[in-house]
């Protein structure tokens, strides 16, 4: 069987789509702007930080003034002066018209992760840390988990989701052919797909392919085991570290679990192949290695420099008192003629939590919740380094 793969294409920064505020493309219902598909527990917070960095810094290069980033429905934008960037925990197929996108007017990317590692991380983060469930429920939750979650999440067309196939009626050869064909279709639809396990490598590939500078890739790690994270029910919770027993490990090695994640494992392998091919054939391994080393060195120095002054939403060590207020944010989809003004609903528990920012001056310490914390310090650090 032909293994799915793709050489992710180069795209110069001058061709990156940047649409300001409510700028429209007259007579065109297709999406415009930057679209990051934010999959649960695939470094989604860090990736959302980088996505917003790109929107801000790309707008700055267009001589736009940026300070405050707010949330307007599904789009993050700085009033009318930042490039549109969309991300939320929604299936790609739930974004109106995305499957008909113009590739010259949009940039579409995502990150995926080993499916077993992703599920365990999700269970401990959401079910244990936030919902207070027992760690002993890991296997019972795994048994009722959706099959091929990431694979389905990235589909642009609901009709092509793998769950619509009657797997029990397909022989193994037919099933693999169908899955390979669909994985190849996803690879071809996206401008880039990275791997959480190879996050720095994937980020540097994006940087080179899209003509970005390293300032776009700087971030502070806001979610660490043992730290506290803001919750969607207006309280801070301590993140519990994954602790999988040997008995539970046996289940994740079983045929029952493997059949659930077969498509995701093949998807993950295809992206891994594509990264290697892109590095070796499009970028060049020697040049890539130099860029990766430079990035990791810069990132460490930037994080060391900015950690003392970075304020996370639930960081008690900084002795900052916060007033969090919960705002329900559950509108339903409204497909209207002006697609840039649609209301985005979520079937997830996504809600908007706003932080009182009077004590911080004109710029927030984070873009939103724990996304982009310390961005101002990182910007200043990179400006001094690049100068």
Q: Care to describe what's here?
A:
This protein is α/β, with parallel strands linked by helices. Helices cover about 35% and strands about 10% of the residues. It is built from eleven helices and ten strands. It has helices at about 45-60, 115-130, 140-145, 150-155, 170-190, 200-210, 245-250, 255-260, 260-285, 285-305, 375-385; strands spanning about 35, 70, 75, 85, 105-110, 190-195, 230, 235-240, 325, 350-355. The chain has a six-stranded mixed β-sheet with strand order 2-3-4-1-5-6. A two-stranded antiparallel ribbon has the order 7-8. Strand 3 (about 75) and strand 4 form a beta hairpin. Helix 6 (about 200-210) crosses helix 10 (about 285-305). Mean pLDDT is about 75; it is low at about 25, about 65-80, about 160-175 and about 320-360.
Can you give the helix content as a percent range? 25-40%
Rg over C-alpha atoms, rounded to the nearest angstrom:
21 Å
Number of helices: 11
Task: Walk across the major sheet and give the strand order.
Answer: 2-3-4-1-5-6
Derived from helix and strand composition plus strand pairing, the structural class reads alpha/beta
User: How many runs of DSSP E, i.e. beta strands?
Assistant: 10
**Residue-averaged pLDDT, rounded?**
77
* Terminus-to-terminus distance: 51 Å
Task: Determine the strand fraction and express it as a percent band.
Answer: 5-15%
Main sheet record: 6 strands, mixed
Unreliable parts: 23-27, 64-80, 161-177, 318-362
Helix and strand sequence:
EHEEEEHHHHEHEEHHHHEEH
Shape: globular
């Amino acid at each position: 069987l032909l293994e799915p793969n793709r050489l992710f294409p180069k795209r110069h920064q001058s061709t990156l789509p940047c649409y300001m505020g409510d700028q429209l493309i007259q007579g065109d219902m297709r999406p415009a702007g930057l679209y990051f598909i934010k999959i649960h527990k695939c470094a989604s917070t860090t990736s959302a930080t980088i996505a917003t960095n790109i929107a801000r810094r790309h707008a700055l290069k267009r001589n736009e003034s940026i300070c405050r980033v707010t949330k307007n429905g599904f789009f993050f934008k700085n009033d009318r002066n930042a490039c549109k960037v969309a991300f939320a925990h929604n299936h790609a197929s739930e974004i109106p018209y995305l499957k008909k996108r113009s590739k010259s007017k949009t940039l579409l990317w995502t990150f995926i992760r080993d499916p077993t590692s992703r599920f365990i991380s999700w269970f401990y983060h959401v079910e244990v840390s936030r919902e207070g469930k027992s760690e002993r429920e890991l296997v019972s939750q795994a048994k009722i988990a959706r099959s091929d979650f990431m694979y389905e999440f990235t589909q642009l067309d609901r009709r092509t989701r793998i769950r619509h196939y009657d797997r029990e009626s397909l022989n193994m050869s037919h099933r693999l052919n169908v899955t390979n064909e669909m994985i190849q279709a996803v690879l071809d639809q996206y401008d880039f797909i990275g791997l959480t396990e190879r996050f720095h490598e994937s980020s540097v590939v994006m940087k080179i392919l899209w003509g970005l500078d390293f300032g776009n890739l700087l971030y502070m790690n806001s979610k660490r085991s043992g730290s506290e994270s803001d919750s969607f029910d207006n309280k801070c919770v301590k993140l519990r570290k994954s602790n999988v027993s040997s008995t539970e490990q046996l289940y994740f090695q079983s045929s029952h679990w493997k059949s659930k994640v077969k498509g995701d494992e093949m998807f993950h392998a295809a992206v891994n192949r594509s990264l290697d091919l892109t590095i070796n054939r499009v970028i060049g391994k020697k040049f890539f290695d130099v860029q990766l080393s430079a990035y990791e060195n810069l990132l460490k120095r930037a994080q060391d420099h900015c950690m003392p002054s970075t304020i996370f939403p639930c960081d008690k060590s900084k002795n900052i008192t916060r007033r969090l207020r919960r705002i329900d944010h559950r509108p339903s989809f409204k497909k209207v003629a002006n697609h840039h003004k649609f209301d985005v609903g979520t079937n997830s528990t996504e809600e908007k939590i706003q932080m009182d920012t009077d004590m911080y001056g004109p710029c927030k310490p984070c873009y939103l919740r724990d996304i982009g914390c310390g961005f101002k310090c990182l910007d200043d650090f990179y400006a001094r380094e690049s100068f």
